[in-house]
Amino acid sequence: MTSYKREMIDWTFKQVFKGAGFLTIALLGSIFFMLMYNAFSFFSRINPIDFFTGIQWDPDTSYSIFPLLVSTFLVAIGSMVIAVPLGILTAAFLSEVAPEKLQMILKPVIEMLAAIPSVAIGFLGIVLLGPFISKLFGIQNGLNALNGSILLAIMALPTIITISEDAINSVPNSHREASLALGANKWETLFKITIPAALPGLIAAVMLGLGRALGETMTVLMATGNAAAIPKGFLDSVRTITATIAIEMGEVPYQTTHYFALFAIAAILFLISLSINFLGEYFANRLRKFDA
């Protein structure tokens, strides 16, 4: 192959990859513009103060995102309370403790967990977890925020475990050796040296796991009860932003106030998810600088 042909092939592939990158940015920008355009159409009809401070989501009378936001964050934060310690400890076990043969078994299992369809997990929440919660707490309905939190924790675990394990593996062995040389045992080294040193990567894992939980639709649609009211606790039925969009968008009349309201709550969720992903990327970049 001549030098000219090699340069032409390199230039062609460079342009293809550059075009793919710009296309991705353009698609993201188009989605953002569409959401914002329709959201502004909604706010031209409804007072933004009422939208953010009201206490009821009822398309017949009022549009308030507040109960949907509370429900969304209640389920998402509940899932992180379960998934974060379990995910980080699992990653630490795989990285620092587990023998190589066990790692070869557990890692594919964790990756397979990410491949389970959300509708299947939601179905398990209805037929197994819901009745169990109902019986355990003596309540009539097990489709509530606790159900959704447990299911979202299961769905967020692969992301948290994978990124946390990479963060822990990136800590230089010299840190561990220095700790052991000073008399610390293996567990003291893990919890006082290795995990704190991997903190930027662990925070990135939590942020990306939270973004995964916030954006999930089918599981929370099936397993949380879909009550559009401000919940008092994890045993109350809730309706998240994603579930509201999935339930109502298929039947709403085109270009009505209700139609634009769904775009407004979608725009809010988009901004929240984008902010969380930016935070995750920020901490991931800090981890890369640490590696360098």
Concise summary:
With 292 residues, the chain is mainly α. Helices cover 77% and strands 0% of the residues. The protein is built from 12 helices and no strands.
Any overview of this molecule?
This protein has helices spanning 3-43, 48-53, 66-97, 100-114, 118-137, 145-169, 173-181, 186-197, 199-215, 218-223, 241-248, 257-291. The chain is globular, with a radius of gyration of 23 Å. The protein is built from twelve helices and no strands. Helix 7 (173-181) packs antiparallel against helix 8 (186-197) and helix 9 (199-215) runs antiparallel to helix 12. With 292 residues, it is mainly α.
Mean pLDDT: 88
Q: Tell me the strand percentage band.
A: under 5%
**What is the first-to-last residue Cα distance?**
36 Å
Count of runs of 4 or more consecutive helical residues: 12
String of helices and strands: HHHHHHHHHHHH
